[in-house]
Amino acid sequence: MSDQPEQTLAFAESPVQLLNTVEWAHASLPPGSGVTIAILPPHDPTTRGQLRRMAQLAGDAGHRVLWREARGGAVAPSKTLATLAGPLRRARRLVVGDPFSRYLQLLLSMAGDSDIVVVDDGTATMEFTAQLARGERLVRWHRPRAQGAAALLFSPVARRAVRRLRPVPGRRVEVFTAMTVPPLEGAAVTDNTFAWTRSAFGPPRLTGGADLVGTSLVETGVLDEDRYVAAVAGLAAGQGVTRYFAHRKESRDKLARLTAEAGVEIVRPDLPLELVARRGPIGSRVLSFPSTVVHTLPRVLAGTGSEVVVCGIDPRWYTDGVTDRASGFLADVTNTALGTHGLTSLPACP
Question: Are 76 and 69 in contact (CB under 8 A)?
């Protein structure tokens, strides 16, 4: 029997989560099956724009897409929770993308005994599975553990959400991922090959030049901005990079510096980069610092002739507050991509 929309309920807070929900449905459900996808958009206008474009593609792929304003003012969150409470309890399966999200943890704490599918929201999937396997609280790799009254009040909700994410008899947990993740006892790990993206788009036209994928590591406080701008300038001069695909969370001021000081053309993607790359045009070489795309683009661009290259990070680029845990995580992102996909790597620019 094919899945009906009310049997599978998905939540997406980012364009990548929405893309990977569509990929999971394409890989896992009978042809013609659709799911209900509730989009919970953030305030950021760039992310909202990408979500709207991605929502159109998800609808064209046969899914029922609901736009739910979950963060606007004092009333919107409680109103959205009230409208989702019934579907949450009735759903046989929940598809989620960011187990670190407090809003999603709140939704999971309200859910019934549904099967759970976790789809990628970038490299955070690697840290999520590692923390869950160790029985730890869920904390993003680049942030210190939350403290204070708010964290204390939320901790019972977080614990209930983590229990929902743990495999138990009678409840299936699946991780649908393009990342290299540690095994999680009792959970199924399914490989995301981006079959829907590769069948629906491309192959792309190659430009013959080199593109660089941007990162928001400066905005999250991990990398020093001056060092990062200098590194991009070094890649432009030494590797022939002419186009810079901006991350949706990068600041306008930093991007303006990259244009002025590195001489690169800033490209603001209107969809997840996996789709932009597959549709083309894309560089014959695509360079990236440690990020999600060093795991996803080799799959998306396989057989096209475009080469994905990983650029190293010099320890001197890190800000003073960066922990060994954060720098170790980025090194793991690079090493697993090199080992899994056999990518070329470049040393850190001086």
Answer: yes
